[in-house]
Design brief:
Keywords: GTP-binding, Nucleotide-binding, tRNA processing. It comes from Nannochloropsis salina CCMP1776. Helix content is 47%, strand content 12%. The chain is built from 18 helices and nine strands. The strands form two sheets. Strands 5-6-4-7-8-9 form a six-stranded mixed beta sheet, sandwiched between helices. Strands 1-2-3 form a three-stranded antiparallel beta sheet. A hairpin with a 6-residue loop joins strand 1 and strand 2. The N terminus is likely disordered. The protein binds guanosine-5'-triphosphate, potassium ion (K) and magnesium ion. Potassium ion binds next to loops.
């Protein structure tokens, strides 16, 4: 916005060099700000177009002054100027081939990232990790298709000759299918990192479940009171546990004797939350456990046990937490003789390490044992994240981060499988399946059929990005 009437014009900033400039309003020559100005000629800019960035101070008055000055250029007929729509810069970057859809999604995830794990994953995707995978597969398919079509066009009319020609393609298609199968079998890791691990806190009334949530959240997110049946609705809190995104749900105390319909509904929701969770934290009152032989007789556990109540803790925790098992927290340590209880737990097989039965004796009131429990929780969360990505190669491979990717890779794989179908399938059918497979991959990166997803993908972007 260098003045064209009055102020001595500084030379136009050199490309890609930060220049400190005074900004003036074109009307009235009023000074608006001192700002960093960047001149980024296309195509080496974010959108691929010629771009000027004004890095202004963030106050409302400065932003408003500069915005009005720019819009005034439009009114003066000197230039077409309007405010960008949300996500418009990114949409232009996509339209100009600077980014594919997976990179756009990575950028959206990066902007929304709350934890280190989410940031890491988003940066990788924004940097083209998924794009390379899908485009690489699409290239390979293109080659396979070209071979197949060549046989169709110039091959012998005899069916068996066609078949023989396609046999050369088969191993390549099979290899590709294998790669896709591995890509799909990621345990939903990428999607879990995006959405957060679901952790449900369950147990009998008054065990200290809400106190537990508040301890994890380090704020009074849920109401705590001595009255049994305080929590009715599921209270959900988003947390960062050692860089991992976690969604913790506090739930209503589970007891079989509940008569009040509201409490019954609360219990139904509690069990539903436990069913959805990737990790369940079972909170019990230590005094309740003390001296008991059969863990299954514990209040709050019974409803999870479908058949005859088992005696051992391991089975109880599996019943509560499903395949992942549950983390057991015995609370109110301050009210019991702790050593005796720990001994009892050890006999029951808890805390063997590496198994699903990790038990912690804590007092959420005094803080005793809480640090150890938090470390245990974090270790379990890391296990949940890593359950399918333990070896290095897997950990480095880009992961599916949205249901959209999964749907198209699955359809692609189906088409590939069909293309290798029974003998005598016919080459033109095989070619058609390869074409379908390629289209499905193209839908992920936005190379084909892009209109239907654009709105959804750009909807969540902010203005100016
Ligand atoms: N002595 C002692 N009391 C505790 C401890 N932790 C929680 N409490 C108390 O136990 C009572 C119940 O705590 P809550 O957190 O409301 O228990 P809850 O499991 O959420 O209860 P419901 O929502 O009613 O099922 C409150 O009075 C807490 O202050 C503890 O470690 N020691
Ligand atoms: K309570
Ligand atoms: Mg509660």
């Amino acid at each position: 916005m260098d003045s064209h009437s009055g102020h001595s014009s500084a030379p136009f900033p050199a490309p890609r060099m930060a220049s400190l400039r005074k900004l003036y309003s074109p009307v009235g020559q009023e000074a608006l700000d001192q700002a960093i100005v960047l001149w980024l000629p296309g195509p080496r800019s974010f959108t691929g177009e010629d771009t000027v960035e004004l890095h202004c101070h963030g106050s409302r008055a400065v932003v408003q002054g500069v915005t009005e000055a720019l819009l005034a250029l439009d009114k003066g007929g000197k230039a077409r100027v309007r405010l960008a729509e949300p996500g418009e810069f990114t949409e232009r970057a996509f339209a100009n081939g600077r980014m594919d859809l997976t990179e756009v999604e990575g950028l959206a995830d990066l902007i929304a990232a709350d934890t280190a794990a989410q940031r890491k994953q988003a940066l990788k995707q924004m940097g083209g990790a998924l794009r390379q995978t899908y485009e690489g597969w699409r290239e390979e398919l293109k080659v396979c298709l070209a071979h197949t079509e060549a046989v169709i066009d110039f091959g012998d009319d005899e069916l068996d000759v066609d078949e023989a020609a396609y046999d050369a393609i088969r191993p390549r298609v099979r290899r590709l299918s294998e790669e896709m199968r591995r890509h799909l079998a990621d345990g939903g890791r990428g999607e879990v990192i995006r959405a957060g691990i679901r952790v449900a806190i369950v147990g009998p009334p008054n065990a200290g479940k809400s106190t537990m949530l508040n301890t994890l959240a380090r704020r009074p997110a849920a109401i705590v009171s001595p009255a049994a049946g305080t929590t009715r609705d599921v209270v959900e809190v988003q947390l960062d546990v050692g860089g991992l995104p976690v969604l913790v749900s506090d739930t209503a105390g589970i007891r079989e004797a509940a008569r009040d319909p509201v409490e019954q509904e609360g219990i139904r929701r509690a069990r539903e939350a436990a069913g959805r969770a990737q990790l369940t934290v079972l909170v019990l009152d230590a005094a309740e456990v003390l001296g008991r032989e059969a863990f299954a007789s514990l209040a709050g556990v019974g409803p999870f046990l479908k058949d005859a109540p088992p005696e051992d803790l391991e089975t109880v925790l599996r019943a509560v937490g499903g395949d992942a098992g549950a983390l057991l927290v015995l609370n109110k340590r301050d009210t019991v003789e702790g050593e005796h209880l720990l001994e009892q737990l050890r006999c029951a097989g808890a805390g063997k390490g590496g198994t699903s039965t990790a038990a912690y004796l804590v007092s959420l009131s005094t803080g005793e044992g809480v640090e150890e429990m938090l470390a245990g929780l974090q270790a379990r969360l890391e296990e949940v994240f890593d359950k399918d990505g333990t070896d290095d190669e897997r950990a480095e491979a880009p992961v599916i981060t949205r249901a959209r990717h999964r749907v198209h890779v699955e359809r692609c794989l189906e088409a590939l499988t069909a293309s290798m179908g029974e003998q005598g399938l016919g080459l033109d059918v095989a070619a058609e399946e390869l074409r379908i497979a390629s289209t499905e991959l193209g839908r992920i990166t936005g190379a084909v059929d892009v209109e239907e997803v654009l709105d959804v993908i750009f909807r969540d972007f902010c203005i100016g990005k």
